[in-house]
Design brief:
Helix content: 40-55%
Strand content: 5-15%
Order of helices and strands: EHHHHHHHHHHEEHHHE
Largest sheet: 2 strands, parallel
Number of helices: 13
Strand order of the largest sheet: 1-4
Number of strands: 4
Bound molecules: zinc ion
Amino acid sequence: MKRVVFIVVFAMLGKQALAWGFLGHKTINYYACFALPQDLFGFYKNYSDYVKTHAVDADSRRYLIDAEACRHYLDCDHYEHSAPLDTIPHRWFDAIEKYTEDTLLEFGIVPWHVLNMKYRLTQAFKEKNLRKILKNSADIGHYIADAHVPLHSTSNYNGQQTDQVGIHALWETRLPQLFYDSIDKMPGTVEYISNPQEFIWSRLSESYSMVDSVLRLEKLISKMHPNDKRSLEPYGRGVKRAYSIPFSRDYYYALDNMVERRMLASIEAVASFWYTAWVDAGQPDLSEFGNLSMEEWSDDKIITPDLNQKMKGRQEYDIE
Ligand SMILES: [Zn+2]
């Protein structure tokens, strides 16, 4: 059967931004390549452009596939009053037994899906299948990064329960864009993960523990900007309404570098998961791929979605 990978190209970024934003996801996958231990760095550095470009394929699929949305989040507050996440069984089948699969799918499955992707990536390394290695690397990078975003761990994902609609894109798109140059992107420790399940659950638990600050500080800083929380900015040939720079700056610093910390932690986690999958596959020699170009192994097809259509599942990015 002919392999077909759909790459969705967004001709415009319009009112809907995407998780961590295009910039955030691409940055995380790209810098993960350069954070790897030497024995795997040689491989990924040749394909850093691929895993960067395809870092947002998983979000693109949300326009096409109903089952995609729930892979990007987990509404922890449906199960737990507060972090740590110790009520939800961390093993998928134990969780199904306790809550049913329908419930899990309804409230999100991101940590379980990361583990599923880890399995797929390990298999791809075992098979030495370049296309699968790169596709699964790009995708797992996306889901790991989503698990590091506090607003991906709550049912109040866009501040819609607390009169803070728009906060999702503010935290993960507007702030990374505005402060991109000052964000440190080289993590300290990238190493083998001996327990991937507990690793990803603890990262999600950290995200959940930050939700309160994300929401509370936005309220606080909003009070300091009663008249200039939003401003009009040039956009194409017109203007768009956005969170103002003074408001965004005050919020960013009030968060005490949380955006930078979560981005760095994401880069570290993505590189560590890639490395772990490769080690678990028996450390296959990948030098035979050399500099094989994308054209030589890929038959990706490019399609363009109708952007007047809404994302399937929850709409995280609507602004007021
Ligand atoms: Zn996502």
